[in-house]
Structure formats: C-alpha cells, structure tokens
C-alpha cells in the first residue's frame, strides 16, 4: 500500500520498507541492465573498429545508426535509474507520494503503475501542455 494513514508521512514503517524494497529492486535491475548495455556497446565498438575495411556508405550508415541506438539506450536506462534514485531520496525525506508541483497526494493507482512518479496527473498534464 502506498498511501499515508498515520501522522508525518502517513505510512507505517512496514509500508515504507515495502516501498523502499520495491524501489531499490527496480533501481538494482536498471543498474544491471545498464551494465549489460555498456558491455554490449563496447563489443559493438570493438567489432566496428576491427571491421571497417571495404565499408561503403550503407555500411557506415548502419554502423552509425547502431551506435546511436546503443547510446540512446544507455541514456534512457540512466534516466530511468535516476528517477528511481530520486524516488528513494524522496521516500527517505518523507515526500514520496506527494506531488512536487502542488504538494497534494499522488493517487495510489498512479504510484502503483509508475512508482517513481513525482507529480499528480493534473500537474503532469499541465507541464506537458506547456512543453508542447
């Protein structure tokens, strides 16, 4: 359960521990995913360096696209991992589950689907509208 029902943060210690465990597990999964992606990227670079003889434009373009895709994947994983790290920090501070925009509670359903959410649906929609 991700809602608050006691004084301070409104969470029992058991709930906080359960949330921390789930966030930490996902953070650790993303760390392992990142390390695997880094290894794959290094292998791709080694193959690319050793296999450039006779490359035409199409081969070079394919290799560039593969390299860009690998770098994009690394950035995405790092971004997601940073979100979970931020969620863990907010949990320790007692602000997890509250919107960073309006300070209102983030619906439990949203946190269950997106545990690293930092804003309620309304604030998220407003921010996306302004960015568009």
Briefly say what this structure is.
The chain has helices at residues 13-50, 57-93, 108-113, 121-131. Helices cover 70% and strands 0% of the residues.
Could you walk me through the main structural features you see in this protein, from its secondary elements to its overall organization?
This protein has 132 residues and is mainly α. The chain has a domain of 84 residues. The protein is 70% helix and 0% strand. It is built from 4 helices and no strands. Helix 1 runs antiparallel to helix 2. The protein is elongated and about 65 Å long. The N terminus is likely disordered.
Please give the structural blueprint.
Elements: H1 13-50, H2 57-93, H3 108-113, H4 121-131
Number of E-state strands: 0
Look at the helices and sheets and give the structural class.
mainly alpha
- Helix fraction by DSSP (H/I, runs of at least 4): 55-70%
Tally of contiguous helical segments:
4
What string gives the helices and strands in order?
A: HHHH
Keywords:
single chain; 70% helix; metal-binding; elongated; disordered N terminus; mainly alpha; 132 residues
